[in-house]
Amino acid sequence: MGVTKTDHFTDEQNRIAIIAKALGHPARVAIIEYLLKVNTCICGDIVNELPLAQATVSQHLKELKNAGLIKGNIEGTAICYCIDENTFGILKDYFSKIILTVSNQKCC
């Protein structure tokens, strides 16, 4: 089997790219912001917050969950979603390194 384009990059680079891609849609950013505001919620609550159909919100939740940005637990007939702090720790470390490096550069 051939080599994929992602094989040419480190695991960390691929992980950051997956996370960034998941955050690359304003509806997903809105979902993250809503989860931060309420701490936890049920899928139906998110649907009420966004001007999107339930199926569309579910697809965005799936993408966020696949990227590890949120986690969900089944509670009865609903799924309760919350922020996955581990993945945001990865982002914090990544962007902290960038900010530190840029702050110390003597570049244009």
From TrEMBL:
InterPro entries assigned: ArsR-like_HTH (IPR011991), HTH_ArsR_DNA-bd_dom (IPR001845), HTH_MetalResp_TranReg (IPR051081), WH-like_DNA-bd_sf (IPR036388), WH_DNA-bd_sf (IPR036390)
Keyword Transcription attributed: yes
GO molecular function: DNA binding; DNA-binding transcription factor activity
Keyword Transcription regulation applies: yes
Keywords: DNA-binding, Transcription, Transcription regulation
Domain HTH arsR-type: 8-106
Gene3D superfamilies: Winged helix-like DNA-binding domain superfamily/Winged helix DNA-binding domain
Coiled-coil regions listed in the entry: none
Pfam families (alphabetical): HTH_5
UniProt xrefs under PANTHER family: REGULATORY PROTEIN ARSR (PTHR33154:SF15), TRANSCRIPTIONAL REGULATOR, ARSR FAMILY (PTHR33154)
Name the record gives this protein: Transcriptional regulator
Organism for this UniProt entry: Chryseobacterium contaminans
